[in-house]
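Structure in, sequence out. Go:
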């Protein structure tokens, strides 16, 4: 799990450009087409792609292109199992003590320059993570590299990973080993880290790929064009030969681009859902929710909002929020309740307690009032609670275009005596302030976060964690989190998620489904969307309506 890189992108738009006549049946592979950036997400920020090195970038927009250029070591399918047919690895053999993981690579994968993909490429990735340390976006997630005692190349198609202690095999495979995506060592090992930073947008640096697409052109702030990798050695070679990620920076612009046909695939902004009938040449696909959680997060180090350190106050917020109303008003009924960091759809990792809570809901303003009374906060004359001369109030930063959700949230919290002051800021500025360890001034943020295939939260809430921009610290939560890493099965995860829901280190909000508008001639979309939030245009083809 990676901050920003894994923050959900709100408008990932696609622009499909047809380069051939429509076909009545699925066209032969290699048929041309043109797309924009991928549909998915929940909370705004308009942004664009700024770099293409997956070892160095931490933006979900950048990851969109990177995921098409480099085939994963382990392809996680919709059932959260490894699909070895689409993975560079052909098998992972776990030793009897759950400390040895032997990764066998398929011998059929080749780089676009004809060089075989081998264990040396996987080892290169691991050693680069070691070299980069916390500068690597996913550092410490999934136990990489902290849980690893040694990584050894046994032969060109076999790697052995030995862990420092027995680990939960499912967690380590889905969240740890999956980070060891092979990158072209024979090209990249010629560059220092500083030189690689200088090459972030140099198309020549990224000529050698093993994924279904490669970069064709990059126009900063406007679009990225990608073309099918003609030397792709994996299954499901692309049917389309060009994908264009068009950067569109507001909900209204997205809508008008869809209506004019400028883009052929993109998110339909929720506020414009009632106007969907105007998009006559499209069809609406409702997908998701994304494998993520939306949240109201706090800076626990800011003394001006010290009240958030009290679990009673955070629990009161949870009970003050009418999630069903959220879903009905903001998403026209297309959403699901959420109270923890483990997504409820699909319910593969939900504890029995989480399932009951999701079924019955948590909205109870009377209980919220009672909890705040117990915490010592008394209602003031203006309807805002006061304690020791301090108001129960905070300033909330929100990305551009995200005003509807926070406004409704602020109204719900006001009913139990909390004041929310909203400040709109550019997404990148919010992230920069949160990520600056010396910045103790920001108070609250309204964002979203994607989770790993095995949804543990990584180091987001760990005391001193590399991704813990909230400065939250709870030793019991750390202990429960650590047990997930070492205990096979789901019981440790159940205990952790139940405690997380009780503590609410961030206030988890409903998880909304995603409205996607697609031109009628686009097919294969159901397979193109991943439950983990990625988009795979190699599965799309163009035909008759």
């Amino acid at each position: 799990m990676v901050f920003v890189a894994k923050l959900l992108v709100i408008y990932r738009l696609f622009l499909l450009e047809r380069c051939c006549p429509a076909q009545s049946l699925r066209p032969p592979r290699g048929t041309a087409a043109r797309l924009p950036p991928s549909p998915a997400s929940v909370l705004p920020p308009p942004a664009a792609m700024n770099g293409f090195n997956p070892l160095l970038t931490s933006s979900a927009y950048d990851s969109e292109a990177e995921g098409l250029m480099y085939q994963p070591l382990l392809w996680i399918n919709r059932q959260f199992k490894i699909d070895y047919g689409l993975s560079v690895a052909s098998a992972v053999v776990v030793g009897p003590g759950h400390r040895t993981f032997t990764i066998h690579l398929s011998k059929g994968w080749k780089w676009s320059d004809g060089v075989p993909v081998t264990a040396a490429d996987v080892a290169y990735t691991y050693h680069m993570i070691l070299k980069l340390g916390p500068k690597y976006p996913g550092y410490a997630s999934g136990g990489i590299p902290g849980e690893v005692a040694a990584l050894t190349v046994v032969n060109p198609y076999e790697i052995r990973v030995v862990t420092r202690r027995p680990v939960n095999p499912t967690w380590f495979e889905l969240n740890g080993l999956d980070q060891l995506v092979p990158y072209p060592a024979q090209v990249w090992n010629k560059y220092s880290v500083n030189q690689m930073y200088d090459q972030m947008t140099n198309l020549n640096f990224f000529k050698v790929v093993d994924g279904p697409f490669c970069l064709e052109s990059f126009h900063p702030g406007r679009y990225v064009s990608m073309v099918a990798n003609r030397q792709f050695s994996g299954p499901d070679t692309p049917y389309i030969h060009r994908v264009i990620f068009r950067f569109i920076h507001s909900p209204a612009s997205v809508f008008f681009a869809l209506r004019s046909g400028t883009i052929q695939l993109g998110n339909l902004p929720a506020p414009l859902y009632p106007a969907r009938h105007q998009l006559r040449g499209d069809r609406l696909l409702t997908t998701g929710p994304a494998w993520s959680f939306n949240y109201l997060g706090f800076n626990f180090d800011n003394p001006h909002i010290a009240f958030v350190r009290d679990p009673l106050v955070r629990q009161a917020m949870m009970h003050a929020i009418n999630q069903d109303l959220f879903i009905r008003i903001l998403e026209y009924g297309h959403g699901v309740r959420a109270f923890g960091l483990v997504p409820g759809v699909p319910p593969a990792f939900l504890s029995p307690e989480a399932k009951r809570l999701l079924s019955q809901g948590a909205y109870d303003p009377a209980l919220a009032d009672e909890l705040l009374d117990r915490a010592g906060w008394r209602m003031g004359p203006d309807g805002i609670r006061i304690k020791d001369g301090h108001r129960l109030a905070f300033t909330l930063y929100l990305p551009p275009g995200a005003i509807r959700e926070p406004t409704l949230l602020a109204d719900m919290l006001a009913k139990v005596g909390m004041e929310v002051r909203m400040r709109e800021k550019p997404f990148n500025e919010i992230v920069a302030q949160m990520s600056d360890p010396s910045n103790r001034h920001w108070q609250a943020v309204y964002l979203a976060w994607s989770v790993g295939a095995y949804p543990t939260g990584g180091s987001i809430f760990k005391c001193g964690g590399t991704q813990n921009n909230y400065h939250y610290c709870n030793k019991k939560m750390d202990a429960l989190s650590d047990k997930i890493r070492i205990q096979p099965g789901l019981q440790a995860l159940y205990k952790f998620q139940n405690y997380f829901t009780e503590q609410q280190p961030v206030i988890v909000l409903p998880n909304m489904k995603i409205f996607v508008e697609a031109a009628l001639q686009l097919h294969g979309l159901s397979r193109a969307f991943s439950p983990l939030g990625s988009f795979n245009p190699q599965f799309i083809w163009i035909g008759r309506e």
